[in-house]
């Protein structure tokens, strides 16, 4: 039976582990918060399940511990930072804050990160700015990874390349967080470790045959882009866009042959006040939310919901009743507790 834990207790535990591993207090706090936030939303592959991997990356020197991103270029509304392989959740949070600040001044603000470490769940960065009235777009790719085949091909070239969008609305924002591939490498690894096939034929084996067997990812297989065999040109096009606006704008990517797990990131913030006004923005998005929710559904089907609203509901329930952790995540946390002589959080 899965146990429930207070979110704040898990945040403190993750922060203490990261400090023990060598991170300064500020990035440790931000990374811990981001991982727990992912679990609160239900994105369990990108939450505390990553903590043991992050600790290993710190230990082997692949995640840098000290310093701040370097400013490579600054053009008022936009900037490029070298994240220097510092903790990706922290450097992205810094970029979101900076992009928001610039949006308040210029109407639009953009910060591109190159050489960042992994940034986990993109949705975790969206809620606060959207509730504060900013529209936010985050794009991410990993120039060291090769998981997704271009449409019509078999050889994996790109990563799942997520697109995340936070849209202010009343009473809750719309939170979109989707990969440009049908599934993610993390989900394939989870299903492979569990000995379970994927829910559909979302992969190609090395000969280009569609399959639901996650083991093909270890044998030259690849993940299909959104749209799959029939309409994968759509996901392929979006993935190319993400690569261009992250690695291209950052001036660092696959052409440089990086080997370490990481991210190239674009954070783009919009202040509605600089366009048609915040009131006008909310008038349009609120109308759209109401129209979508009022859409007729077929018999015995649930009403239409907006992206992110189920995640926000899960978060509210977890904050009230506790966050459920499965045996796999608990095993990872228990190993870290033993490794750093810390007490494992108590359930309730």
Features:
alpha+beta, Hypothetical Oxidoreductase Yiak, Chain: A, domain 1, Wheat Germ Agglutinin (Isolectin 2), domain 1, three-stranded antiparallel sheet, 16% strand
Structure description:
By secondary structure, this protein is an alpha+beta fold. The protein has three domains: about 1-65 and about 310-348, Orthogonal Bundle (Hypothetical Oxidoreductase Yiak, Chain: A, domain 1), CATH 1.10.1530; about 65-180 and about 230-305, Ribosomal Protein S8, Chain: A, domain 1, CATH 3.30.1370.60; about 185-225, Wheat Germ Agglutinin (Isolectin 2), domain 1 (2-Layer Sandwich). Helices cover about 40% and strands about 15% of the residues. It is built from ten helices and twelve strands. It has helices at about 5-20, 25-40, 50-60, 90-105, 125-130, 185-195, 230-250, 280-295, 310-320, 325-340, and strands spanning about 5, 70-75, 80, 110-115, 135-140, 165, 175-180, 205, 210, 220-225, 265-270, 325. A seven-stranded mixed β-sheet has the order 2-3-4-11-5-6-7. A three-stranded antiparallel β-sheet has the order 9-8-10, with no helix packed on it. A two-stranded antiparallel ribbon has the order 1-12. α4 links the parallel β3 (about 80) and β4 (about 110-115). α2 crosses α9 (about 310-320). The longest helix has 23 residues, at about 230-250. It starts with a strand and ends in a 9-residue tail after the last helix.
């Amino acid at each position: 039976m899965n146990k429930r834990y207070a979110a704040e207790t898990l945040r403190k535990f993750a922060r203490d582990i990261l400090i023990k591993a060598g991170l300064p207090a500020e990035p440790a706090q931000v990374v811990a918060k981001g991982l727990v936030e992912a679990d609160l939303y239900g994105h369990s592959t990108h939450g505390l399940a990553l903590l043991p991997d992050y600790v290993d990356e710190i230990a082997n020197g692949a995640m840098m511990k000290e310093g701040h991103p370097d400013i490579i270029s600054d053009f008022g509304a936009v900037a490029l930072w070298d994240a220097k392989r510092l903790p990706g959740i922290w450097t992205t949070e810094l970029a979101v804050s900076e992009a928001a600040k610039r949006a308040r001044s210029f109407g639009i603000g953009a910060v591109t990160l190159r050489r960042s470490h992994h940034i986990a769940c993109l949705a975790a960065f969206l809620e606060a700015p959207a509730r504060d009235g900013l529209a936010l777009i985050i794009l991410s790719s990993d120039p060291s990874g090769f998981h997704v085949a271009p449409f019509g091909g078999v050889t994996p070239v790109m990563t799942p390349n997520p697109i995340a969008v936070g849209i202010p609305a009343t009473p809750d924002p719309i939170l979109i967080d989707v990969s440009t591939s049908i599934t993610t490498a993390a989900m394939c690894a989870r299903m492979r470790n569990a000995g379970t096939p994927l829910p559909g034929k979302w992969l190609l084996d090395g000969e280009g045959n569609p399959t639901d067997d996650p083991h093909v990812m270890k044998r030259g297989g690849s993940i299909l882009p959104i749209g799959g065999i029939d309409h994968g040109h759509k996901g392929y096009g979006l993935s190319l866009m993400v690569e261009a606006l992250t690695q291209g704008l950052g001036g660092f990517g696959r052409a440089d042959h990086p080997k370490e797990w990481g991210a190239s990131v674009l954070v783009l913030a919009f202040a509605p006040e600089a366009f048609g006004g915040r009131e006008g923005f909310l008038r349009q998005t609120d109308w759209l939310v109401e129209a979508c929710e009022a859409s007729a559904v077929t018999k015995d089907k649930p009403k239409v919901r907006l992206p992110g609203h189920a995640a926000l509901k899960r978060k509210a329930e977890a904050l009230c009743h506790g966050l459920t952790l499965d045996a796999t995540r608990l095993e990872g946390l228990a190993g870290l507790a033993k490794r750093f002589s810390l007490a494992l959080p108590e359930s309730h």
